[in-house]
Amino acid sequence: MTYEAFRTLSSRSALPPVAAVLFAATVLVLKWEERRKTRRALQRLDAHMLRDIGLTGRNAADEIEKPFWRE
After folding, report:
1. Which of 3, 11, 48, 53 is deepest in the core (most CB within 10 A)?
2. Per-residue pLDDT tens for 18-71?
3. CA 37 – CA 17 distance, rounded (Å)
4. Is 14 within a domain?
């Protein structure tokens, strides 16, 4: 299940406090994993592909260097 699916699910139901905390932690971990995967994919793009998505090598390097917990 993706981060977006969990976020949608969480907005639809009221959970008991402990479950809400565990759910929020799960959503956070999924968000971190999504960032890690996206940054790894960005790392594999060549200069031509980066230009196609409107990024420079420096923009990509700045994003790739971020730790997974930073947006």
Report:
1. 3
2. 998 999 999 999 999 999 999 999 999 999 999 999 999 999 999 999 999 999
3. 30
4. no
Q: Is 34 exposed, middle or buried (0-12, 13-18, 19+ CB in 10 A)?
A: middle
Do 56 and 50 form a contact (C-beta atoms < 8 A)? yes
Q: What residue numbers bound the domain in which 70 lies?
A: 38-71
Residues with Cβ within 8 Å of 24's Cβ and at least 6 positions away in sequence, in order, are 10
Q: Among 61, 62, 42, which residue's Cα sits nearest to residue 52?
A: 42
Q: Taking the complete model, does pTM exceed 0.85, yes or no?
A: no
Q: Is residue 71 part of a domain?
A: yes
